[in-house]
Design a protein that fits this description.
The protein has about 100 residues and is an all-alpha fold.
């Protein structure tokens, strides 16, 4: 008799109909996966951005273009373009070499 009263008090549960709570688990599980993938993607993007701002402590890779030219190279380019004559080129080059030593 007791079992019949419980079944009659909660119609719909005895035939596995339920109120529709079954949809919460897949939605929550999907959101969990989306947040995990988003977090990993954010961390990868953050590390790539940080790599551009802070170069590797070991210095640039051999053969990597650092974007900076030595003063001797700049002077040689100016001489090749004709902005500096030969006498001025030699005097400035010797001054640059004297500063380095």
């Amino acid at each position: 008799m007791h079992t019949l009263m419980i079944t009659a008090a909660q119609p719909g549960w005895h035939d596995h109909g339920g109120p529709g709570w079954w949809a919460i688990f897949p939605i929550t599980f999907g959101l969990l996966w989306l947040s995990a993938i988003g977090f990993v993607g954010f961390q990868i993007a953050k590390r790539r951005r940080r790599g551009r701002r802070f170069p590797h402590p070991a210095g640039p890779r051999p053969g990597a273009d650092t974007g900076k030219q030595r003063p001797e190279d700049l002077l040689a380019e100016r001489f090749a373009r004709g902005e500096v004559d030969e006498d001025e080129f030699h005097s400035r080059m010797s001054a640059l070499r004297a500063e380095r030593e």
